[in-house]
Amino acid sequence: MQQLTINVPDNKIAFFMDLAKNLGFTIESNIKENILSDRQIELVNEARKQIEENPESYLDWEEARKKLKVE
Q1: How far apart are alpha carbons 53 and 63 in whole angstroms?
Q2: What pTM, to 2 d.p., does this model score?
């Protein structure tokens, strides 16, 4: 048996995996799926942009930690 390594674009991986399976190929996969959805990634990027544009409106971790009341 021969081995072949290929690079598949992220947006085509599901199609390719289905195709390979239907053709009877054996696939050894170390694919890591996104933990976050596309919408969640978009929200994180928006928050990062807001922090970059207006950093004075946010507390750094040490200041925020001092203000937290831990029971």
Answers
A1: 20
A2: 0.40
Q: pLDDT, tens digit, for every residue of 13-50?
A: 889 989 998 999 888 877 766 678 889 999 999 999 99
The residue count of the chain comes to: 71
What CA–CA distance (Å, rounded) separates 25 from 19? 9
Whether 16 and 8 have beta carbons less than 8 Å apart is answered as yes
- As a three-state string, the secondary structure of 30-58 is CCCCCCCCHHHHHHHHHHHHHHHHCHHHC
The dihedral over CA atoms of 54, 58, 63, 64, expressed in degrees to the nearest 10, equals: -170
Q: What is the DSSP letter of 27?
A: -
C-alpha 49/C-alpha 29 separation (Å) is 35
Q: Is the CB of residue 44 less than 8 Å from the CB of residue 36? A: yes
